[in-house]
Amino acid sequence: MMQMDWAKGLLRPDVEVRESVKTLGQLSGIFANTKALREMDPTTVVYRVQAWCPIPEGTEGGLFWGTTVVEPGLVDSEYFMTHGHFHLKRDRTEYYGTIEGEGALVLMDETRATWMEPMAAGTVHFIRPRVAHRVANIGKSPLRFVACWPSDAGHDYESIRTYGFGARLLNVRGSAMLVKSDA
Ligand code: S6P
Ligand code: ZN
Question: 31, CA 20 to 30 Å: which among 9, 55, 160, 165?
Fold first, then answer.
């Protein structure tokens, strides 16, 4: 059994919980404006992840549970966001559920068609097979969400590092807009 603090959107820290922190320095390749990024503190935290993986990674038929907190912020006009990934087993799906904050779930299929679903307290999102997913914080406070995914899904970060998403979520005159990427 695990304890979840639903108000904070966090699992109770425990030996069973894997925790990771992603900083601007670690995410340098994913933001468009590398010059603006270089002028920012590379130790700035962009998001934190907890994962409860009660069975070995790769086990067929199991499920993992995790929390993510994305901080508010911008690199030039691009919102702070998660790295984003396809699942290594492309047909594996996932649920995201928003605890609090204001965000956008950016989704991309294998033809690079990219779209978004708004995230706010209470929204539940089903991520379909063969769809890459990334979350941007478009608000002024931390964006907190939970995730549930198959234990044999795996993560393909490489495709995103190399090709990115088909569009970027930018702050255009104060509003969040999905703008097609050149890459
Ligand atoms: C795992 C699930 C989430 C993400 C987390 C960080 O399948 O989608 O727990 O790992 O939101 O995003 P990323 O793209 O860095 O894994
Ligand atoms: Zn995933």
Answer: 9
